[in-house]
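Escalation from tier 1.

The customer reports that the assembly of two entities below gives different structure tokens on two consecutive runs. Tier 1 could not reproduce it. I'm attaching the input and our single run for tier 2 to review.
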Amino acid sequence: MFDEPYRWIDAIHQRRDYIAEQLERAAPVIGLSLPEGILLATFHRQNPKIFEIYDRIGMAGIGHPADLETVRGILLNMAHVEGFQRSSSDVSIERLSLFGLAPRLKSAFEDISVPPIILDVLLAEVGRTMSEDRFVQVSFDGNISRGTDMAVLAPTDEISARMIRALKEAPRDMETQKLTLEKALPRLRDIFLRTLYTQEDLGTNDDGAIVSPDRYALCDKKLTEERAWEGVLLDRDNPTCCRHIPLPPSENLALSGKSR
Amino acid sequence: MMTGHERIGGLPPTRPGYFPDLLKVYQDQTLLKGSRREEGDSFLSGITHGTTILAFHYRDGVLVAGDRRATASNRIMSNRVDKVIEIDKSSLLAISGSPAMALEMARILDHSLKYYRRSQLTEISLEGKIRILAQLLKDNLSMAVEGIGAVVPLYIARDPETGSVRIYFYDILGAHFEGVEFSVGGSGSPEVQGILRYLDRWDSRPLREYSRDEAIVLALRLLETASYFDSATGGVKGQDPVYPVIKLLTPETLETIDDRTISTIYKDEVIRVR
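Tier 1 run:
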């Protein structure tokens, strides 16, 4: 049935469209390199999206929970066997993605006789300094992209670009000119609100200014009621165990006195 | 229908969260396959062994200590072996016997606990930790009975349910028991065991009432006594002082006593010329 090239290409196109459609509703995950370590953050509806993989290494995935669990298991196994047989410092996201995950995802994507893996993956590796922090994204077709200071795993490039723009505008620490955990967290809440809710729902104008604080507050309330916050820090000072970070109140609500 | 693992080339399922199973898939179980040895083999005399380890309850928690010597027959292979290993923030493994096997076991145990936590998304229970070590010892049985790689460890861990610190000792088959007041291991242990029993029973107060400083002094004196009678236990030599490793595990903290402190206590409390 798929022995003719055209039919195979057509099937691959359909597969790509099908997976993209399935990923459409996924809430994005943000990865941020901070002086304290790497923060991975999202708001999930049902199932957690962020996991510790190995010393210094975390992962996040958007897509089907069963596929996320499968890939998580593969990464965990690879990392622990590699770390045991060699050294923990030999385990890197570059090797995990390049030699482990990407070829497998590519094969699975191109094998049109089996159900597709519906999953995009973000891997993060905290270094000794911020300049050594690494992000690698592996998409469902096995494509790899890399980053150093921040990464957004989102269903579309447009959402990803918008969130990165907002992250770059986040206020820096006056002294170091770096984004710190304390300053990043309230901003993240706002960025997720603006990503997950429409401008109309939020009561913001075209410039992003809040014109209806009540609507904004309502969305903020819905956000935490309908979804669960996940904030995981790959701690630079304690790289063998990641730390869960609680969600602070919204900075905009705090400013307008509507913080719950 | 293919499973997710089959679709993207994962591993066959193993016992969930059990790291040694995973290792068996990848390797011909380097730990711990015995080899038949012929009568009169002489290479066994070159196998390195380490002693002496001890652990006892004191007022704040448990003190764990070990000398630093590893020997092969009548040769001293090293005087800088670390026999008290931090497995995680709430448990210690003290090793006596074959360092090769013991360090491998410590490494497997360390990875097993992390692997369990990361894969099962919860901490393994204390009983689970103890059983993993028991299984590793059982798997090592053929090496142990051949005289190549016997390991007799002490496992000291916080009990999350009671908040107390417990001492467990093992035999080479993997049977484990709780050392209620103290446990010892290695060739220098008979002297240490005798003294601890005597002090706990007939001293003016039991070991559990010893202060932190008193416990450290006692540990140093015990290891010094062991080294006096047992050549495989390392002492502290004047020209090249290497001090025993002493760690204190309490319900809240895990502390390693630094060499400077040990050196001072050693000079003041252990070296006494009558």
